[in-house]
User: What shape does this take?
Amino acid sequence: MSIPTSTRPSLLVALRDPQDERAWAEFVELYTPLIYGHCVRRGLQDADAADVAQEVMKAVAGAMGRFDYNRERGTFRAWLLTVVRSKLNNFFARAARLPTTPGDTQVTALAEEPAPADDDAIWEAECRQRMFEWAAARVQPEFQPSSWQAFWWTAVEHRAVAEVAAQLGLSAGAVYIARSRIIARLRDEIESASGDGGLLSPVG
Assistant: This one.
């Protein structure tokens, strides 16, 4: 199943207004778990990962007012990853300046360990997965449980339509219709927070 997963220009433009609470709530809900998970994958403890995620959000909030949408400059997600890496480097640099204790060995080792060679690809996959999870959570209550199950088993778990139809007591046609409608709805939801995915470039 292919669903668009890049950040839409309208959301990025909306984020330039620090008073747009709806846009910022949407952005925080969508991206904080992603950033937190990335930091944990890099070896940070829960509290440290949460702190770095908060620092990233502050940095994004501070940058948005100076940026404009430009689809020629690359993806927003790639830019966000550079911010995440910067804040991770800051975290490791601060840890290195603190007095050492026996428990600091792991942090020191993490600071000296480079990002994985496939870090960009992993981040991109994590972004796409997070987009899908976010949209699915918002869309699922709109559909009957049997329709959602028909979609999930066929589109996500790739089970045979005939098998799913028999198990749910539906016709094959009903399974196809449910899957099609939910995929279309997911596309709409993701496109409400995604689209061309251009990078924000400095204004002036």
User: Anything to note?
Assistant: The longest strand covers residues 67-75. Strands lie at 67-75, 198-202.
